[in-house]
Every structure is written in structure tokens, then in C-alpha cells.
């Protein structure tokens, strides 16, 4: 799988090599191989495998031979780029990025600008002719290393220079950021491994049923600098709207920024139209690449990109996290486009997503009479009512509340999982809060402005993540009818053809076993379905557990108010049983 033989812990994803195993190299490195294979411009990289991660946790140290192989990988990057790691007239800096086999956006650590020290800062200043840029690279790297490797808990982002950042780190943790780039690299790889077992990563895996021992690969990639000059920037592009599934590019661009600036939510980026107006050639190249990746990936893609000195580089492409509405629209659209067959399309939507989509909406006219407390960008649709709290710990202690933050970070994920809605003062539609809320199908409004936390905390509010409005109090809602939605109606038809059980809303001929009549005696237990039963009804048969019990008992017909969630649960059970 590699262009270099004799490597145990490393893979070099190059276009002239066979497709690497996603389980071995992680989704991020696999996407680099795919993009390079398609002829797209990607900074060169190599990857430390998930096997090395497993070996690290066996002995709590880098496995034997890995440090030598890291040297080999860096030498490959040096030869390809004509740069030198740790010094020289053209210094090489790298990013050290996590990447599990199953996408976990923002849950593990990434360290940028690694390899920077005082000597490299001077060389970078000489090469670019911009001492301020070089100093900013050094300051940023020092902060990354201090937080993610040394465990510094101080707020380092607002400190003026590298010296101040170093001093704050040393005072907080009693350690210094090393000048030796090789020491930096070895420690950073270990830190990324450890981040796969962080509190936030464990909470995410538990919520989505991902194996606890999944681990992570570590991608080491040559840096490109979106913060280099006025002809540089960074951004995120979704090939289809992750909010409603519309077939049009959706994303943001931040001039003179790095990817971390966009994701963190601390800065509100500009719309992609800014890139189109400022650099139409680069924008056209980006859209062409996005169309290619959407087509080849047979799904909506989430693409990270950087522009350095008017040249486009793609950093990652992965299936986009999306709302339930977007999942439904995209699945149906891909059938219409001839990309998917209906039988595959119904596997792209889960029963839980449809149940989410059928949640009540604000009743017609109710919003017109209500007091508006805050407005921002609707980042994840849905309506939720709850008491506002301002810390993830408070959210976890009060499930169903509304979590309001200045901006969110991976350390807030446990609270975001518990909350019914998320609201932020800062950030845009591709910020951490927005992306994670869409993955959770949690109502989210971002960019409401300074003072929002203080104005809302302790109040009962209703959040409309579609319109981007936060209302005072609890607003009345109305139910959604799946039969009136064309996409849901078509999915229901396809799903009924894909499963043997008949799901109906109107009942069936013959005797019916009604589980609701026994619910009071059974509590949360599944009822015992009498042998030979062919038709069942009751709330329990709207749940995945109830659907499994009905199918395992040989039931032919399930009567339920909403057909599609039950059909999709039946398909999922049938697929898992084969």
C-alpha cells in the first residue's frame, strides 16, 4: 500500500498506489488518497496507522520503530517539496491530524504549524518577506502545542506574542514547548492518539454506538497557509446544503485565516460568494472539484480547503454530516440523478432521522405574536423549548435544556448531546456548534451576537433552528404529516418494497395484538407476542426494539401512525441479520 517498502506503522497515500484500507489509515488519509487519485491538488502527506494507535495504548508509549519511520516519512515530504524540517532556507512545517475510520468531526485533536521554533520563524520571515506572518505562525503553534500536548488550560488565543504564550504555558503546567521539531512531532503523535480516548470522543462514540476501541490514525501533512497574505484564506464547502439538502454549494470562506479559525466559531467567515467575487478562477476550480467529489463519492461531501497565494489546495473530503431534512432530500435526489437505486437510497436515511423530521413545528402565526429574544443564523432546523443554561455540565445535569455559549468546542460535546437546542453568540454555519448540532439533529442558532448568554441564561425559551430565532417562553406547535411531504412519500413507497413486513396506518383484517392495552402492566418491558400473531399495533412497535421483536415473531403487519420510521427500522434489522 505504500510507496516505501519496509514500513510497519506508516502508509503513504499516493495516487499510484493501491487503495489503502480505511480501517488502517482512517477516513481523512483515505480521502487524501482519493483526491490525489482524481488529480486534485492536495498537500503531500503520510499517515501513522490505527495499528500504531492500538500498540501505543498497549504500552502507553510510541511503539518500537515508529520514531524511525516518522523520520522516513518526513524525509519523503522534504524531497517532494524541496523543504527542510526544522530549519533551512525553505522550512517545512506540518499539521498532525487525527482521523478515525468512522468520521467523528471535531472530537479529536489536530495540531497545526508543527516544526516551528525560533530558527524556523526567522527562516519563514526571510522566505516570505513577512516577519509578522512568521511570528503569528510561531505563536499559533506554541498555543496548539501548549493546549493539546502539554494540557495547558489557560486562554492563550488573546496573548500578543510567542513569548507571552510560552510564559503562560510554563506557569500553568510547569513545562516548556520544546524547540526540537522531532521532539515536537513525537509528542504530538502521542497526544493525538490520546485524544481518541478523551471525554468528548468517548461521549460521541457512546451516543452513536461506535466501538470504544476504535482509536485513530494520525495524518502528517505539509502545511499550506491560508493566513499568509491577502491572496490567501481558508474555508469549508458542502456540495449540497447540509440543512435542507438543496443541490447547490453551501459554505463559508475566511480571508487570511486557517481552518481552526472557521471551525472554532471565534470568527464569523464570509459567504462563498466573497471567494467568487475576489478570486473567480479559484472559486471555479473549487466548484469543479466539489462536483467531481460529489459524483465520485455518490453522496454529499464536506470539503475543507485552503487558498495559499491564489492557489487552491484541498485538505479533506468526507460524507457530510446533515440534518434529517437534508438526509431525506439528498437520498431522493440521488435516485433522481441516477446515482442510487431506490433500495440503496432507503439505507441512507435512518428511522431516527425520520422521527426527528416529524417533530412538531411552531404553530402557524405563533411566532408573529411572540417576543423575540435573539436572532442569528439558523444552522440546524427543529423547534425546542427549555430552560437556558450556559455550561455543558449544567446541560448534562438538566437534559432537554437549551445550551447557550459564546462559541462551542469539542469539550462541550457532552452538554450538546444532553441539550434540546444550542445557541451561540459567535460563529457561522460551518462552525463547530453548527456541524455537531446537525450531526445530532439538535436545533441550533449561531452568531446571535455579544451578550446573548447573559440575556438568556435562566429563561425558558423556544428555539427555532430553521429561522434562526429564539423566542421567549414556550410557543404552541403543530404536528407534521409525512403523507404531505413528497420526499417522505417516495421513500415510504421504496421502503415498503424493500421489506417483507407491511406497515399501515389504517389497520388490517383479522385479529390484532394491541400492545398498548398491556403497557400498564409491563412498564418498559416488551410485551410477549402470542404465537401465530400476524398483525400488531401499539406505541412499542414504533421503536426499533419493538420492530425487531415483531419481525422475529413472524409478524406480517404493523399498524402505526407513521409508516416510514417503522419501515426503515425493519430494513435496518433485516440488513443486520444477513
Automatic annotation (TrEMBL):
Pyruvate phosphate dikinase AMP/ATP-binding domain segment(s) = 66-271
Q: Name one Pfam family in it.
A: PEP-utilizers
Coiled-coil residue windows: none
Instruction: Reply yes or no: does the keyword Transferase apply.
Output: yes
Bilayer-crossing regions: none
The UniProt keywords, alphabetically, are: Pyruvate, Transferase
- Output the Gene Ontology terms for molecular function: pyruvate, phosphate dikinase activity
Q: What is its EC number?
A: 2.7.9.1
What region holds the PEP-utilising enzyme mobile domain? 398-468
Q: What EC class does the entry list? A: transferase
The protein's matches in PROSITE patterns, at most eight in alphabetical order, are given as:
PEP_ENZYMES_PHOS_SITE (PS00370)
PANTHER family to which the protein is assigned, alphabetical: PHOSPHOENOLPYRUVATE DIKINASE-RELATED (PTHR22931), PYRUVATE, PHOSPHATE DIKINASE 1, CHLOROPLASTIC (PTHR22931:SF9)
Supply the name of the protein: Pyruvate, phosphate dikinase
What species was this sequence derived from? Amycolatopsis acididurans
From the broadest rank down, the organism's phylogenetic lineage runs: Bacteria, Bacillati, Actinomycetota, Actinomycetes, Pseudonocardiales
Amino acid at each position: 500500500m505504500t510507496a516505501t517498502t519496509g514500513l510497519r506503522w506508516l502508509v503513504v497515500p499516493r495516487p499510484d498506489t493501491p487503495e489503502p484500507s480505511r480501517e488502517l489509515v482512517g477516513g481523512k488519509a483515505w480521502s487524501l488518497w482519493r483526491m490525489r487519485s482524481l488529480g486534485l491538488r492536495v498537500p503531500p502527506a503520510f499517515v501513522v496507522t490505527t495499528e500504531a494507535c492500538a500498540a501505543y495504548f498497549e504500552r502507553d508509549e510510541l511503539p518500537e520503530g515508529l520514531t524511525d519511520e516518522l523520520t522516513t516519512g518526513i524525509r519523503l515530504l522534504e524531497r517532494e517539496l524541496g523543504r527542510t524540517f526544522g530549519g533551512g532556507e525553505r522550512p517545512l512545517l506540518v499539521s498532525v491530524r487525527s482521523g478515525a475510520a468512522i468520521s467523528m468531526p471535531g472530537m479529536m485533536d489536530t495540531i497545526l504549524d508543527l516544526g516551528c521554533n525560533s530558527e524556523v520563524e526567522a527562516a519563514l520571515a526571510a522566505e516570505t518577506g513577512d516577519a509578522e506572518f512568521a511570528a503569528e505562525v510561531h505563536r499559533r503553534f506554541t498555543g496548539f502545542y501548549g493546549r493539546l500536548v502539554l494540557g495547558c488550560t489557560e486562554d492563550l488565543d488573546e496573548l500578543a506574542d510567542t513569548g507571552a504564550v510560552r510564559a503562560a504555558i510554563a506557569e500553568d503546567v510547569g513545562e516548556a514547548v520544546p524547540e526540537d521539531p522531532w521532539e515536537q512531532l513525537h509528542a504530538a503523535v502521542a497526544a493525538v492518539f490520546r485524544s481518541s480516548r478523551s471525554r468528548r470522543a468517548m461521549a460521541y462514540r457512546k451516543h452513536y454506538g461506535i466501538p470504544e476501541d476504535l482509536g485513530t490514525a494520525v495524518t502528517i501533512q505539509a502545511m499550506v497557509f491560508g493566513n499568509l497574505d491577502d491572496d490567501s484564506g481558508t474555508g469549508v464547502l458542502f456540495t449540497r446544503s447540509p440543512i435542507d439538502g438543496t443541490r447547490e454549494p453551501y459554505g463559508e470562506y475566511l480571508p487570511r485565516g486557517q481552518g481552526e479559525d472557521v471551525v472554532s466559531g471565534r470568527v464569523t467567515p464570509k459567504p462563498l460568494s466573497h471567494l467568487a467575487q475576489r478570486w473567480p478562477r479559484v472559486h471555479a476550480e473549487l466548484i469543479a472539484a466539489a462536483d467531481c467529489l460529489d459524483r465520485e463519492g455518490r453522496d454529499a461531501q464536506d470539503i475543507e480547503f485552503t487558498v495559499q497565494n491564489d492557489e487552491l489546495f484541498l485538505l479533506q473530503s468526507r460524507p457530510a454530516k446533515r440534518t434529517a431534512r437534508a438526509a431525506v432530500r439528498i437520498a431522493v435526489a440521488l435516485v433522481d440523478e441516477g446515482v442510487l437505486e431506490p433500495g440503496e437510497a432507503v439505507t441512507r436515511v435512518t428511522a431516527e432521522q425520520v422521527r426527528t423530521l416529524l417533530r412538531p413545528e411552531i404553530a402557524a402565526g405563533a411566532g408573529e405574536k411572540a417576543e423575540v429574544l435573539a436572532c442569528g443564523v439558523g444552522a440546524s432546523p427543529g423547534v425546542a423549548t427549555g430552560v437556558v443554561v450556559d455550561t455543558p455540565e449544567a446541560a448534562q445535569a438538566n437534559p432537554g435544556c437549551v445550551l447557550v455559549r459564546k462559541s462551542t468546542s469539542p469539550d462541550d460535546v457532552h452538554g450538546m448531546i444532553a441539550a434540546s437546542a444550542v445557541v451561540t453568540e459567535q460563529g457561522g454555519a460551518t462552525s463547530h456548534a453548527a456541524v455537531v448540532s446537525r450531526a445530532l439533529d439538535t436545533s441550533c442558532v449561531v452568531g446571535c451576537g455579544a451578550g446573548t448568554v447573559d440575556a438568556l441564561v435562566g429563561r425558558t425559551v423556544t428555539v427555532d433552528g430553521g429561522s434562526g430565532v429564539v423566542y421567549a417562553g414556550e410557543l404552541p406547535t403543530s404536528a407534521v404529516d409525512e403523507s404531505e411531504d413528497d420526499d417522505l412519500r417516495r421513500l415510504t413507497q421504496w421502503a415498503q418494497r424493500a421489506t417483507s413486513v407491511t406497515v399501515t396506518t389504517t389497520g388490517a383484517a383479522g385479529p390484532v395484538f394491541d400492545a398498548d392495552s398491556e403497557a400498564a402492566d409491563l412498564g418498559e418491558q416488551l410485551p410477549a407476542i402470542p404465537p401465530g400473531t400476524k398483525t400488531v399495533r401499539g406505541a412499542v412497535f414504533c421503536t426499533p426494539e419493538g420492530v425487531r421483536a415483531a419481525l422475529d415473531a413472524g409478524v406480517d403487519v404493523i399498524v402505526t401512525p407513521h409508516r416510514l420510521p417503522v419501515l426503515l427500522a425493519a430494513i435496518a434489522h433485516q440488513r443486520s441479520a444477513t
